[in-house]
Amino acid sequence: MRSLPVVEVDSRAAQRVRKGHVWIYNNEIKGDLQGEPGDVVQVVVRHKSGGKNKVGIAFFNPHSLITLRVFSRKSTIPDESFWHERLLRSCQFRNWIRVKDSSNAMRMVFAEADGIPGLIVDRFDDVLVVQTLCMGVDRLKHLIVKILKEIIRPRTIVERNDTSTRKLEGLEENAEILHGTLDGPIEIREGSLRMLV
Q: pTM for the full model?
């Protein structure tokens, strides 16, 4: 089994993560940095006896103010089934909401709130719009598209990574169709309202 690069953080950051906060900033990193931008890393904190305790698993980007984005407090190395479960859980919850309010447009995945930092997925009828706003999740983009095709079976998946936020992560802006075709506006419902997007 492969091991993850290790990044040590200060005790203040470790305490915040244990309370549910998922961002660790560059001034909270201790020691030498291991790993490449976008890597999945093991986050640790040194305790008084000199040993290290595991804090969680995170996306790593040494070039970003938000150097670590924690997505799991367990030590399991994430594989395809890990991301499939995260996306499935998020989409099932949103589908339940959609049935209750009869809308055909909504946010299906909301980044850190759904345990997938930097990933936004919006649904407009049978079209999905995907944003990957941090280096780690951007490196998973093709896997995410594959899983979304299995879970939701959309007609089209559009990448809308044309936001300046990506520059903070060292990513280029981009907008294109990743799956299917799109030949015009889509009608969406919000209660009794009908709108073209």
A: 0.91
